[in-house]
Structure formats: structure tokens, C-alpha cells
Amino acid sequence: MSNALITQILNAEKEADEIRLNAQHEANALIASAEEAFSEDSRRFEKELSEIAAHCVEESKLGIEDELKALEVRKSAEHTALNERAEERVETVARLILREIMSNGSR
Asked: Is-above-0.85 flag for pTM?
């Protein structure tokens, strides 16, 4: 009877070892699966983040280009206005010089 009991205990221990080994294999498989899913999510997140950053850079670039164009238009208008004022003054200055020469011409 004690041999039968010892055999049952040994069989139970062997079965417990197999159950524990199967549980470890299943746990390792779950961990590997979770790590792979995490890696995929990380790669997808990095790609999305990169795309968002590229989009932000492009939007900023377009905004800066628009600002530069507006500045160029404004500066061109200012330049044109300065040229027009200078041309208006040329006639006035020419008349003043001519008047001065004419009034001092007899000296």
C-alpha cells in the first residue's frame, strides 16, 4: 500500500511538473505575443508621429513662404511709393535749381 501511495505521489508530482512546464510555455508565448504587439504599436506610433511632424514642418514652411510673399509685396509697394515721391521731387528740385541759376545768373 505504501508503494502504491508513493507511486501516486510521484505521478502527481510528474503531472504537476508537466502542468507547470505547459504554463511556463503558454506564459512565454503570451509575453512574446504582447512584446510583438507592443513593437508593432511603437512602430506605428513612430510613423504617425513622423508624419505629423512632417506635416507641421510643411505647414510652417508654407506659412513662412506666405509671409515672405506678403512682405515682398509690401516692400515693393513701399519702393514704388518712394520712387514716385522721388520723381515728384525731381521736378520741384529742378525748378528750384533753375530759378536759383536764373536769379543768380547775372552775378
From this structure: no
